[in-house]
Amino acid sequence: MNEQMTERPWETLSEILKTSDTEELRRYLEALSPAETARTVSRLSSQEQSKLLMVLEPQDAADVIEGFSDTQAIELIEYLPAENAAAIVDEIPSDRQADLLAELDEKDAEAILKEMSPEEADAVRHLLTYDPNTAGGLMIKEYVAYKEEDRVCDVLEDLENNRGIYKDYHVQYLYVRDKEERLAGVLRIHDLLYAPRDALLNTLMIKDPLYVSVQATVGKLREFFSEHGLFGVPVVDTESKLVGVVLPVAVEEASVKRANRQFLGLSGIVGGEEFRTMPLLVRSGRRFSWLSINIVLNIIAASVIAYYQDTLVAVIALAVFLPMISDMSGCSGNQAVAVSMRELTLGLIRPKEILRVIGKELGLGALNGLGLGLLLGGVALLWKGNPFLGLVVGGALMANTMLAVTFGGVLPLALKSVKLDPALVSSPVLTTVTDMCGFFLVLSLATALLPRLAGG
Amino acid sequence: MNEQMTERPWETLSEILKTSDTEELRRYLEALSPAETARTVSRLSSQEQSKLLMVLEPQDAADVIEGFSDTQAIELIEYLPAENAAAIVDEIPSDRQADLLAELDEKDAEAILKEMSPEEADAVRHLLTYDPNTAGGLMIKEYVAYKEEDRVCDVLEDLENNRGIYKDYHVQYLYVRDKEERLAGVLRIHDLLYAPRDALLNTLMIKDPLYVSVQATVGKLREFFSEHGLFGVPVVDTESKLVGVVLPVAVEEASVKRANRQFLGLSGIVGGEEFRTMPLLVRSGRRFSWLSINIVLNIIAASVIAYYQDTLVAVIALAVFLPMISDMSGCSGNQAVAVSMRELTLGLIRPKEILRVIGKELGLGALNGLGLGLLLGGVALLWKGNPFLGLVVGGALMANTMLAVTFGGVLPLALKSVKLDPALVSSPVLTTVTDMCGFFLVLSLATALLPRLAGG
Question: Quick one: A217 and A289 in the same domain?
Fold first, then answer.
């Protein structure tokens, strides 16, 4: 929140880095806000970034990493020697450790895990076995659990002795395990306040506590926390053993990530986030791979136009309207795609409810198609004075809008049913279909009415 | 979680509703998960929804409302008589109350506020004075504060006496005010554990605690919580008075909302969320208002084609390529828009760094333009056997890709500088500009090379 900072703080940082003065570096970074730190460090060269992370104390380097998005953090880590990377990763909370290691090459991840402290490494290896969008992937290992037969005084003593470790934990509840390591109960810190010091935990704890399974999805977890305003929920595996705790913040972060993935996917940024600090060829290659699929689909769609060349020569005005019909149908269809994706995310609709969506979109498509068709048809009529041109252009846009809206509404449900990601697949499929149909409608109608049009 | 539920639970609910049996309704809804409740209730008619909320106890009705997104919740509330709405809103946490009332008509909101309990209404009125995307708008009023000269025993007694009220609060910290109501310190519940019962709070509390101002933005709050792993942060007004507490979950929720707004905005769903349970005319009208702006922009862009009609008649093959160049340039440009929007959100770039973006996008645009241009030019050459057609089409796509990528990258920064929302404005502006330039490049190049092309 240092507003008087220099315009280009990375230049200052780069200067300090030359001196390798750990203390000075720490001081400089501490004066920057986390966003400023991320911006500043991202502007350094890869060599400088690696040096910075190696010169800083691991805890300070971990603070830098924590301010970064996963994609950026991984780029920084993968250039470090495994032992330096491990020392830094050791200092990061376990759910984030798992997120990062999951996105590294398996070989790089393994090298880092080998260098980490054995307990930390075991905890992360365990988290890595779960899907990152389930409770197993979102849970943290930083929780405090005791045995049923422990006493209040044992707990207080342990809390006191391990203050240094626990202070970084989000300790709201203490968990109680039975002899088979199963979750037996939950104890609120508050409830220790008035308890006799020699009471057994199983006399104080809340029995049959709420919990989720390792497979619980982000959606289920959001529901859980909106229903129960708790600070965390214990996670149990298939044998009812307590294996971790999910915090509400982790669930919301997963939702933010999903919404961002949808946004980027629909915009054609696929295969991970892109930042302009990445190498040009990586950025260009990733974007191009998506574009090259689209251009092939475009060529297929445009072949419809090539088929009707003679009609186009006879009524060249149609060439003006083809791109508009393509673009407007894409717009109408994308609106319906977005509404379906939101309704799916919110659980307001199920993938098999395709008939419901058709029912809801067909009428809307007819209305908006009528409006757009009248507009564009009117423009065509006014321009060339030929009512048949208006009829062809307006009629085709109207019919194609109905089709685009209905198809766009159904598409995400259909993709979801066959386990494809609507955010990645909807847009190219939609525009190809609506382009082909739109071109066909205009040009086949025009061919049928050719004598009336060519006279215009 | 009730998987054996009927396929169409809203029909069962509708049947129960006819009996107006409060207890039976409550039991039926309780068996549904929150998402199922939202889906089920949203499928009822407006009359049935109003009846349901009025028949249920206010607390149960509030639970139903809390499972809904703001847009849906408002639709339900605005049809209720003000006194029923007020009784329900009374039961909702204060930050959510403010979100909902802020989106209602001022008259409706005022009617509800008049019927609410005076303390609740005052708290909400206060929250409503702040921008919903600042600490003032995100904070809750459900916190517990004491005076500096209070003693531990006073606090414990108060906590005990008001257990019923405080159990719904997220009490992690107790806040301590000085005589002028200013924030003086923070006390962790834990620290009461070992404290002598007659100790004054100002001897136990953490002095000079961390706080944020009512104006702190979502971005600053995210930074704050990522830097300090706290359960909440006190919010002070311009006179340093303690006015509320922001929880990390509220900040993440605001981020989810922003990401969804971006996603919907880019897809052409503007003016609020759309659900298919809304009336057809509302849905159609909102979508159409955005489409009608786009069709006008499309007509403007297509006028470039109309201007070059003679060239098109001479080389009709160009008509096949125009929609492709429009579509592909839009795709390339949208990728750059998405990257800029993400970098702006993450604070990795500032709105005035336009030159940096140009530098980073121009090279990428040249590379990808070359790739796409070679592809499309090659197709044109193979199709018609005319190298000049390939040159015109490929060259135009290459140049227009460079332009689209650079313009797309810069656009969100420029819009942000003039306080326009990139999510709403980027896409229509981008496609209009890239369409016009694309059409102009193809057709003016073709006109210049007409003798070579017409012979092909």
Answer: no
Domain membership flag for residue B198: yes
Q: What ipTM goes with this model? A: 0.85
pLDDT in tens, chain A (456 residues): 344 456 788 889 999 999 888 889 988 988 887 778 888 998 898 889 999 999 999 989 998 888 788 888 888 888 899 999 999 998 888 778 888 898 888 888 999 999 998 988 888 888 888 988 899 989 988 888 999 999 988 888 888 888 777 766 766 788 999 999 899 999 887 777 667 888 899 888 988 899 999 999 988 898 888 777 777 899 999 999 999 999 888 888 888 888 888 889 989 998 888 999 888 999 999 999 999 999 999 999 999 999 999 999 999 999 999 999 999 999 999 999 999 999 998 888 999 999 999 999 999 999 999 999 999 999 999 999 999 999 999 999 999 999 999 999 999 999 999 999 998 899 999 999 999 999 999 999 999 999 988 754
Q: Which parts of B98-160 are beta strand (E)?
A: 145-147
Distance between A246 CA and the closest CA of chain B, angstroms:
13
Question: Residue A129's CB: how many other CB atoms inside 10 A?
Answer: 10
Which of B227, B267, B322, B433 would you mutate first to test chain A, the one with the most A CBs within 10 A?
B267
Whether A303 and A422 share a structural domain: yes
Residue in A closest to B305 by C-alpha? A320
Place of tokens 């659900």: B275
How many separate domains does chain A show? 3
Amino acid identity at A317: A
DSSP letter string, B1-12: --TT--S-HHHH
Structure tokens given for A380: 């065509």
Calpha distance B320→A176 (Å, rounded): 70
Q: Are residues A294 and A256 both part of a single domain? A: no
pTM of the predicted model as reported, rounded to 2 decimal places: 0.85
CATH of the domain at B55: 1.25.60.10
H runs (alpha helix) in B308-353? 309-314, 317-345
B312:A299 CB<8 A: no
Only one residue has tokens 């002095």, namely: B207
Residues B19 and B10: their CA atoms lie apart, in Å, by 15
Q: Note whether A358 and A306 are same-domain residues.
A: yes
Same domain, A70 and A180: no
Q: Euclidean distance between the first and final Cα of chain A, in Å?
A: 67
Question: For residue A330, which residues of chain B lie inside 8 Å, CB to CB?
Answer: 327
Cβ atoms B234, B183 nearer than 8 A: yes
Distance from CA of B295 to the nearest CA of A (A): 7
What residues make up the domain containing A431? 280-454
Cβ atoms within 10 Å of A39's Cβ, excluding its own: 22
Beta sheet of A233-236, edge-to-edge order:
A212-213, A233-236, A242-246
Query: What angle, rounded to 10 degrees, do the helices at A317-345 and A354-384 form?
Result: 160
Residues of B in contact with A319 (CB under 8 A): 305, 309, 312, 316, 318-319, 322
In this structure, what CATH number is given to the domain that contains residue B405? 1.10.357.20
Distance linking the first and last C-alpha atoms of chain B: 67
- How far is the C-alpha of A213 from the C-alpha of A237, rounded, in Å? 6
Q: How far apart are CA B268 and CA B428, in angstroms?
A: 9
B73 and B160 fall within a common domain: no
Residue from A272, A277, A271, A275 nearest A49 by CA: A277
Contact A183, A205 (CB under 8 A): no
Report CB contact under 8 Å: A267, B69. Answer: no
